[in-house]
Amino acid sequence: MDWAVAGRKVLLPGGSRPACLHIEAGKFAEIAPIGHSHPGVDVYEAGELPVLPGLVDSHVHVNQPGRTEWEGFASATRAAMVGGTTTIVDMPLNSIPPTVSVEALDVKRAEAGLEVRSDVAFWGGLVPDNLDQLEPMAEAGVCGFKAFLVDSGVPEFPPVDLQQIRDALEVLARLGLPLLVHAEDPAHIHSAPDGNHYVDYLRSRAPEAEEEAVLGLIDAAADTGGHVHVLHLASAGALPAISMAKERGVGITAETCPHYLFFSSEEVPDGATQFKCAPPIRDRSHQDGLWGGLSSGTLDMVVSDHSPAPPELKAVESGDFGAAWGGISSVQLRLAVTWTAARDRGWALENLVPKLALAPAALAGLAGRKGAIAVGMDADLLVFDPDAGFIVDPTTLEHRHPLTPYGGRSLTGVAGLVVLRGEPAGPLTAGLLLPGPRATASTP
């Protein structure tokens, strides 16, 4: 045995209980009663602080290569680790080239392999002209594919229509991989007018855009037998359709994000472009509905949609919502933000953590290795102080650009010890590139 972590509140798949976690060769080798450590083995005593599985964030835009000045693997994975996220899954945009071919995937892996500090897996991209690339990319190890129904904001990653979604789902149903979709119906999207009034931007992306798109995706999944995953849901109006589809056995899952659970449109100041994202932050009735969807299981997970950009692209000086890039930097703060809001609503930590760890791991096909504390799984964990409060100082964030709507906010919950495959996080802790569920090549 290499070493052990002991605590009175270890979050295991069956619930929280006292345990001693023995770690050997980067894996959980034994889960013993507390006090049952092996002779000569160093034991880290967590005491009454909860010991949680390392978190998994399946929605992170790293942007390297091509737009590394927005974010890169070194800074993004460092930020993830500080916040208790030991595995991220990188989105196929906004890097150049986007991950829409095996060759582009190879480029991204080569860039990432030099710099990652957390473990990293990859999504592939579905665009109008790469249907023939889906199977080769699956064999090369992507965890699934992402598509847009609306303009992605970058010209090299164009949107697809519902027929192309159906064509892709036919292939992916056979491969057993999910299709992740930015679900907004373009018929309900309007160009955001120039100006600093948040309400004008909010009106340009009505809730009906999400609701109509989700209905089309449900039909496509039902007809093809594929698995469709709804990204960053902001409209509570789409929840009944998702719930009914799940009851019918349709292959659909859905996520939301910390900013939709923490903020409401009523508190977004005019000119505060750091709040701009798509879909937009909606009013409190939607926020309340999203929390209800998490509680009922209609929403499966909470992921960051970490999508940073330089301050000039966020139009921070002009405060112009029409000109600003849409995206929120939050990978480092996902646990603290979500726990702060959940605790205020009476949630127990053991009910929240699976939505931050195991559910995202399962979506990416990594549940046999990541997202839970169990014998044989990677020894990823964090010791969490759920009562420690702090005020977000953007200058202390590890993101490449610290601009964030959480600046100055009081949050609760701090990750102390963070362990990646048995190694306590530190300057020398290096991440690993993970193969997806159908990978045939060895891990780089």
Outline the structure in words:
With 444 residues, the chain is an alpha/beta fold. The protein is 27% helix and 22% strand. The chain has 12 helices and 17 strands. It has helices spanning 73-82, 102-112, 134-140, 162-175, 198-204, 207-224, 239-247, 258-262, 284-296, 334-344, 349-356, 358-363, and strands at residues 3-12, 15-24, 27-32, 42-47, 51-53, 55-60, 85-90, 119-122, 124-125, 145-148, 178-182, 227-230, 252-256, 301-302, 381-391, 410-420, 423-424. The strands form 4 sheets. The chain has a 6-stranded parallel beta sheet. Helix 4 (162-175) packs across helix 6 and helix 6 (207-224) runs parallel beside helix 7 (239-247).
Round the Cα radius of gyration to an integer and report it. 21 Å
Helix/strand order: EEEEEEHEHEEHEHEHHEHEHHEHHHEEE
Proportion of beta-strand residues: 15-25%
Secondary structure tally, helices = 12
Secondary structure class reads alpha/beta
Spatial strand order of the main sheet: 9-10-11-12-13-14
Stretches with pLDDT under 50, minimum 5 residues = 439-444
Reported for the largest beta sheet, the result is: 6 strands, parallel
